[in-house]
Amino acid sequence: MSAPLVIVGDSLLDVDVEGTADRLCPDAPVPVVEGQAEHHRPGGAGLAALLAARDGTPVTLVTAVGDDPSGRCLEDLLSPTVEIVRLPLRGTTVRKTRVRARGQTLVRIDTGDGRAMGRPGQVASASAFARAADALASAGAVLVADYGRGVADLLRELLRGLDVPVVWDPHPRGSLPVPGCALVTPSEAEARGMCGEPYVSPERTARRLVRDLDAEAVAITLGERGAMLARRGGRFGPVPAPHVAVGEDACGAGDRFAAAAALALADGASTEDAVARAVGEATRFVADGGAAALRLPRPAAEAPVPFPPGASAFEVAAAVRASGGRLIATGGCFDLLHAGHVSLLRRARALGDALVVCVNSDDSIRRLKGPSRPLVSERDRVEVLRALGCVDAVTVFGEDTPSQVIERLCPDVWVKGGDYDERSMPEAEAVRRAGGEVVILPTVPGYSTTGLIAAARAAS
């Protein structure tokens, strides 16, 4: 699609506090979460906008954002990939904080009371509403992500009668969709609340909502069961998931579904094809870890993470976690450091706030590569790596794989070169257990330690 997808709705800041919980608090039967790291991402309409933009689509987000720390963080996270039309907000930006341990959410804390404010005719908000009207007029499709914080209500008249597909993702606290929506996407629980009769089945409820909402179609999302689609004229049927999503965190799946459906409709897909595509994308999203797996770079405006002079790898990791930053780690022998290594390390460091390099010990290399290796001693390899400006700390491991040191460091991202793949990487499971993700970066062609050794021997 050449015209942008315009997303209208309420944005909030999602924060995941990650750690481990191995003991109970002595004064209450609650777990003690240790080793905390904070990960920030957009929520609500902001998450839908981010996910759509990651598909390579131009996205305009019409939302209300507060001038407070959470609002500024939210804007910093979105602005690199999303065009924001900012409406005024009364109160503070909503922030939802989940405290998690080993992939399980223990408690969620909601703060902020912000609601969209202003009216199209008011002087103070006239320019913002004019920009919102211009955005809607140029849209290829519109997604309304209504989280009940007032944005959809303020723009309701502008949303009526648009000549592009309108997908409405409702919320129990929000208002009913405008008549004529191309698709309404409630969850099963939301559909129960919207239906004016006792809940019987997804089929009957979807057909009832098509009539009551005067919508072209309603797709009730059913989690791992896919969706139930009903269209104007009485046609209905299930849309099964392509496979069962094994992920434990479904947070954000509804936003992924609605954004994928809107993009498909904008591309000219039929309603059935759009819903099938949305079911597939939402299923993959959950299988890949859901919203909790999203790791966004810290906003550039934030101060760098301070490290004590000569800090060890584990001190650097603790400092990054304490500041809510993103820890990157990688590992290898780094025998005869070459330009390919340096390129990989520089690109890895750009993914976060600190880079820790895990280096095989001399004994480990001999077991892996034979008695003639390494060519460069452990001490010298560490010194050369520490001298690189992109490396924040180095640690040595004596095992055949870095799994044990990964479980101590708990990196957000484990980086390896493109000559590896995650399935054949023995430490990948340790990365996942520690709450991180594996990123494979392309290698620089023509560089390898084995090739350098062979060239040197041939020259001699």
UniProtKB/TrEMBL annotation:
It catalyses: D-glycero-beta-D-manno-heptose 1-phosphate + ATP + H(+) = ADP-D-glycero-beta-D-manno-heptose + diphosphate. InterPro entries: Archaeal_FAD_synthase (IPR050385), Cyt_trans-like (IPR004821), PfkB_dom (IPR011611), RfaE_dom_II (IPR011914), Ribokinase-like (IPR029056), Rossmann-like_a/b/a_fold (IPR014729). It is an enzyme of class 2 (transferase). Keywords: ATP-binding, Carbohydrate metabolism, Multifunctional enzyme, Nucleotide-binding, Nucleotidyltransferase, Transferase. Residues 6-292 form the Carbohydrate kinase PfkB domain. GO terms for molecular function: nucleotidyltransferase activity. SUPFAM superfamilies: Nucleotidylyl transferase, Ribokinase-like. The keyword Nucleotidyltransferase applies. Gene3D superfamilies: 3.40.1190.20, HUPs (3.40.50.620). Residues 330-423 form the Cytidyltransferase-like domain. Pfam families: CTP_transf_like, PfkB. Its EC number is 2.7.7.70. NCBIfam families: cyt_tran_rel (TIGR00125), rfaE_dom_II (TIGR02199). This is D-glycero-beta-D-manno-heptose 1-phosphate adenylyltransferase.
